[in-house]
Every structure is written in structure tokens, then in C-alpha cells.
Design goal:
Elements lengths: L4 H13 L1 H34 L8 E6 L19 H10 L3 E17 L2 E10 L3 H4 L2 E6 L4 H6 L3 E5 H8 L8 E4 L2 E11 L7 H5 L1 E4 H8 L7 E6 L5 H15 L10 E5 H44 L1 H9 L4 H40 L14 H27 L3 H5 L3
Parallel strand pairs: 3-8, 5-7
Antiparallel strand pairs: 1-9, 1-10, 2-3, 2-6, 2-9, 4-7, 5-8, 6-7
Keywords: Cell membrane, Membrane, Transmembrane, Transmembrane helix
Membrane topology: Multi-pass membrane protein
Protein name: ABC transporter permease
Length: 416
């Protein structure tokens, strides 16, 4: 049975009668919910900052390169570094299931690149079409290297945005030509990193050409400096990493147990470790926030016990007039829920408002903090906080309500 209007008016009158006590009790719940929402919002900002460092690049990838071997094998001595070849890339694509994309890169450093009389030393990168998908590079204009460019070894180039600005100024470079070691390349696009970081500065300065064109035009041989390998969505790249390394060691006569020879960096493992770390941090923040809220709930419970003690005679009169225990219990719990729900809701609004204010301030003033980005409160946190408010109100009123229901009318009405 729901509370009627008279019952609510009676509860409000009781609360108004003890304004200071009610206010201090409500403050405990307000602060508990406020701190819960605030610490979770700030924790999400730290998590967003950490994940933002990965950018939009694929998370399920690994980087593979060669390094000097440390163990003799098949007549080869330690210290020999294998030279990765384009054929290795084709072998990986052919023999290892679960591979989605393999993107090799070969670089020529400090090579003069000219447009008319304007020239500067640049990094020339030979790539296939898959690198832009994995490395989260952004096209500013035109297009990137495509399959046809690779198959026909076309003399086309994609410029980093900063290289394009230096050589072409405000004019569009698309369709224009640049000269690399006497070979003319037509510019088909400009690119750059989605996020400018110290380790992405080189992307803005580089010039990308088809890998096959680099082989033919500059006589580099079909070698590869390193490649990036991504796995399918249903397969973790850590599962295919041993297979890739074993295949390359076999092809280049590296001892299967040699810890070096073929090096790899698994981005998926780093990403998963950060996910696990922030899972633990969020659990700790929930623990701290709920602990603070429980302190407020205990305060509400204590005050409700005092209220029941003060209203013992009134409760005795109600029971003597035939009020069932359920009515007494419902009245006490309703009073508890009203205090916790009202103060908690205000704490929820205040915490959410503060997080929103911090996020807006950072966005409007373009404040960049590498380890902190876009603090926010998710719908799950909001619903969870509301559920906690309801449970808190009920829990805070249960024990006092039971005391009230057990009041003996005869004892309550006895003159002291």
C-alpha cells in the first residue's frame, strides 16, 4: 500500500521540526554520493587519457623487426642480423591463419626532396596500402597509396602535411610533382597523424611512396625495415605472434630458442594491461565512494533510531488505536528514503555538474593534459548511483522501523 498525502505531510512536518539535525544527516549522504560520482568521473578522465595515447590505431597489432641473433645455428654465428624481405610478408599472409593485415615499411632517411627550387631532406617511406589502416593516419587531402600503385610501381607520393606546407605553401600540392634523387613523383595526397605527439612528428615530415616503386627507382632490393601485423577481430594478436616469429626464424635460419633475431612489440598486450589496470582502479574508486556513502547511511540510521526513541509515545498511541506494525514500518522507512533520496539526488547533480564543468573548461580553453582527457559520468554510473540511493534509504530505515514495530503500547503509554 502506498503512502497517502497525510502521511507525507506528517513526515515533512517531523523533518521541519528538526531542521538542523535533518540537514546534517542529509549532508552525510549528499557528500557520499557527490564523492562517489566525482571520483568515478575523474577516474574516467584518467582512463580516457591513457586510451587516448593509443590513438585510433588498431589495438590488436604487433610490430616486428630483425635484430642480431645470439645463438649459433646451422653454421651461422651469433651477431648475424637477418634481413627481412618482401617475400617474408607474402609468406606470413599465405601460411598464418588469423592475419588480417601486414603492412611493411622501408625508410630512406635524410633524402633531399625538391619542388622546383624548394627542397629539404626528408624521410622517404616505401609502404603498401595497409599502413594507413593500422597506424591511424589521417588523410588531409587527396588519397593514400593504393593497390594499383603498388602493382604498377607508380611514381606517386603522399606528403606529410608539414612537408607539403614547406614546399607548396598555401597552394594545393595535389597533381603537382616533387623530385627525389632525380626521379619525378606526382603528389596524390597529404597525410598526418590524428594526434600530434612527440612520436608522431615524423609523420608530418615524411614522404610516402609505393614500396615497389622504391625498389625499382632506388635499387634498395626487396628488403623491409619492419612491418606491422594485425589479427582478425576474433583472434588475439598474441596468439599469432609465436607463429609469425617461428616462421621468420625458420626462413632466416635463426635458432628457434633464440630470444633475439626476430623482435616484436605487442600493442595488444599493452592495451589489455591498461584495461586491467583501470578495471582495478575503478573497483577501488567504487569501494572508496561506497564506503563514504555508507558512512552517511549509518548517520541516517542513527538519527532514525533517535527519532523512533523520541516518538515512542506517539507510536504507542498509534498501535493502541489499531495501527498495524506494517504501517509504522512503512512510515519510518519512507522518512529515511525521503532524506537519502533528496540529499543523494542533490549530491548526484552536484557531482555530475562539477565533472561537466571541468570537461567544458578544458574543452573551451583547449587545455591539453596528456594523462587526463574528457572526464565524464556514464549512464551506468548514474543508474548505479540512483539504485544505491534507493537501497541506502531502505537499509537506513530497516532497523529503526523494526524497533518502532516492536514498541509495546502499554510500555509506551506508561507515565514516567
Amino acid at each position: 500500500m502506498l503512502m497517502d498525502r497525510d502521511s507525507w505531510q506528517e513526515i515533512l512536518a517531523t523533518l521541519r521540526k528538526h531542521k538542523l539535525r535533518t540537514g546534517l544527516t542529509a549532508l552525510g549522504v549528499f557528500w557520499g554520493i557527490f564523492m562517489l560520482v566525482f571520483v568515478l568521473g575523474m577516474g574516467r578522465g584518467l582512463q580516457n587519457g591513457a586510451f587516448r595515447g593509443f590513438g585510433d590505431r588498431a589495438k590488436n597489432v604487433m610490430y616486428v623487426w630483425s635484430s642480431p641473433a645470439t645463438m649459433p645455428y646451422k653454421g651461422f654465428q651469433p651477431g648475424r642480423a637477418p634481413r627481412l624481405q618482401l617475400q617474408d610478408i607474402r609468406a606470413i599472409e599465405t601460411h598464418i591463419a588469423g592475419i588480417e593485415e601486414v603492412a611493411p615499411r622501408l625508410s630512406m632517411n635524410s633524402v633531399p626532396v625538391y619542388h622546383r627550387d624548394i627542397g629539404e631532406a626528408r624521410e622517404i617511406r616505401g609502404e603498401l596500402e595497409g599502413m594507413i589502416k593500422i597506424e591511424a593516419l589521417r588523410l588531409y587531402s587527396g588519397r593514400y597509396i593504393n593497390q594499383k600503385d603498388v602493382e604498377d610501381a607508380r611514381k606517386v607520393a603522399v606528403l606529410g602535411v608539414r612537408a607539403a606546407e614547406v614546399m607548396f605553401g598555401q597552394a594545393s600540392p595535389i597533381g603537382q610533382y616533387v623530385r627525389i634523387q632525380g626521379v619525378e613523383f606526382q603528389v596524390v595526397g597529404t597525410f598526418g597523424p590524428i594526434q600530434v605527439k612527440p612520436w608522431t612528428e615524423s609523420d608530418m615530415e615524411a614522404v610516402v611512396i609505393p614500396l615497389t616503386t622504391m625498389y625499382r627507382a632506388f635499387g634498395t632490393g626487396e628488403r623491409v625495415d619492419y612491418f606491422v601485423c594485425s589479427a582478425r577481430e576474433d583472434i588475439r594478436v598474441s596468439q599469432v605472434e609465436p607463429q609469425v616469429k617461428a616462421l621468420l626464424k625458420q626462413r632466416h635460419n635463426i635458432h628457434p630458442e633464440d630470444p633475439r633475431g626476430i623482435g616484436a612489440y605487442n600493442l595488444e598486450e599493452d592495451f589489455q594491461s591498461i584495461v586491467s589496470l583501470f578495471g582495478g582502479i575503478n573497483a577501488f574508486l567504487w569501494f572508496v565512494g561506497i564506503g563514504t556513502l555508507l558512512a552517511g547511511i549509518v548517520g541516517v540510521g542513527n538519527i532514525m533510531l533517535i527519532t523512533v526513541k523520541e516518538r515512542t509515545k506517539e507510536i504507542g498511541v498509534r498501535k493502541a488505536l489499531g495501527a498495524p506494525p506494517a504501517t509504522i514500518v512503512r512510515m519510518i522507512i519512507a522518512e529515511s528514503v525521503l532524506i537519502t533520496a533528496t540529499s543523494g539526488y542533490l549530491g548526484l547533480i552536484a557531482g555530475t555538474g562539477l565533472i561537466w564543468g571541468i570537461s567544458t573548461l578544458m574543452r573551451v580553453n583547449e587545455i591539453e593534459v596528456e594523462t587526463f582527457y574528457n572526464p565524464e559520468i556514464s549512464l551506468t554510473v548514474g543508474l548505479g548511483a540512483l539504485l544505491l540511493l534507493i537501497l541506502a534509504g531502505v537499509l537506513a530505515g530497516v532497523i529503526p522501523a523494526r524497533h518502532a514495530a516492536q514498541v509495546n503500547p502499554v510500555v509506551a503509554l506508561r507515565d514516567e
